[in-house]
Design a protein that fits this description.
This protein is an alpha/beta fold. The chain contains 13 helices and 14 strands. A hairpin with a 2-residue loop joins strand 3 and strand 4. The structure holds ligand FO1.
């Protein structure tokens, strides 16, 4: 079964890890948000790509929630001595990823070719595909004006209220050929439990992306989203406060409402059972289960349950 997962931050990366564990090698493609990408110390850093890369290669630091486990910080400390800004922390081994990727980009590789080479080097059986090859940096408007995403997220610790979100340069972006091919071959598309506004939102905002999803759905490929809001609260990050400050409901139903035009099924946590009828009233089929992926076994369990749920759509369509 060919599966395409859409992923932003940690939640999407965890579900992708579970999917990789239960699918045959080569059957999973992950389309990642590149709106969080930034340049630090002259290097291209791709937080969402790298969260998935490190998760799928068993390197992710689950305790810290980003970067590589067992990191050392020699280069960062040396940069601090040189007076360079160090609020965005890059570990020594993480630096190697950004150096290798940036070198390939400077040699003329596309973003996709540069990251696929790194994935091959790390030996993962999954293709992690940037949603687009051009730069589409996410910016958020706060009461102090527009901020680059990492300035808001890391430097200002997500403290300012977000009034507006934009993806700079998005009007000129296109899904890559690799993304289009993965969606054309997919049997199931799964939107991971990532922030619907700044993680999945940019992926769906790439011009032509929702058409590719619609084409897949037209050949009976179910598109299923998993809520990253449980009991009204984001499992990680500022999604709950962002939904509220932008006038949406911070709940699993609020997440489902973001995707109604694009999805067929929605997975919500057992904690939110009472919301299930109102999600179903949006025209969606639902699965209510434990969506908290506490450990590796939990990731694989949720992946299996979501794939079984997806199987019920194909039966219904036949
Ligand atoms: N998150 C932090 O909270 N502090 C950091 O210093 C930090 C550094 C960092 C370096 C590389 C990388 O790939 C991710 C990093 N993150 C850091 C995580 C991060 O930027 C966010 O979690 C995502 O952009 C939101 O999805």
């Amino acid at each position: 079964m060919k599966v395409v997962a859409l992923a932003g931050g940690t939640g999407g990366a965890k579900l992708a890890h579970g999917l990789q564990a239960v699918l045959s090698p080569g059957d999973l493609h992950v389309i990642v948000n590149t709106g969080d990408d930034t340049e630090r110390h002259g290097l291209v850093v791709m937080p969402d790509h790298d969260a998935v890369l490190y998760m799928l290669s068993g390197r992710f630091d689950d305790d810290r929630g980003w970067g590589i486990s067992g990191e050392t910080w020699t280069v960062m400390d040396a940069l601090a001595e040189l007076g360079e800004p160090t609020w965005f922390r890059l570990g020594d081994r993480d630096f190697a990823t950004h150096i290798a990727r940036t070198a390939r980009l400077r040699e003329g590789s596309t973003l996709t070719a540069a990251v696929l080479a790194i994935q091959d080097a790390l030996g993962i059986p999954t293709r992690i595909l940037p949603m687009t090859d051009t730069s589409v940096p996410t910016q958020v408007r706060t009461d102090a004006g527009w901020l680059d995403f990492q300035e808001y997220f890391v430097h200002q610790a997500q403290a300012p209220e977000v009034r507006e979100i934009r993806f700079s340069g998005m009007e000129a972006a296109l899904p890559t050929d690799e993304v289009a091919a993965a969606l054309a071959a997919a049997d199931v598309v799964i939107i991971g439990p990532s922030n619907p506004l700044v993680s999945v939102g940019p992926i769906l905002a790439v011009p032509g992306m929702t058409d590719l999803l619609a084409t897949a759905r037209a050949r009976d490929v179910p598109v299923i989203a998993v809520s990253g809001i449980v009991g009204g609260v984001a499992l990680k990050g500022p999604a709950d406060r962002m939904l509220t400050s932008l006038g949406y409901e911070s709940s699993a139903r609020g997440v489902a409402a973001q995707y109604t035009e694009q999805i067929d099924g929605f997975v919500l946590d057992s904690v939110d059972t009472e919301l299930e009828p109102s999600v179903a009233a949006l025209g969606l089929r639902t699965l209510v289960t434990d969506t908290i992926m506490a450990d590796h076994a939990g990731r694989a369990r949720l992946a299996r349950e979501v794939l079984a749920f997806a199987g019920t759509f194909r039966g219904a369509a036949a």
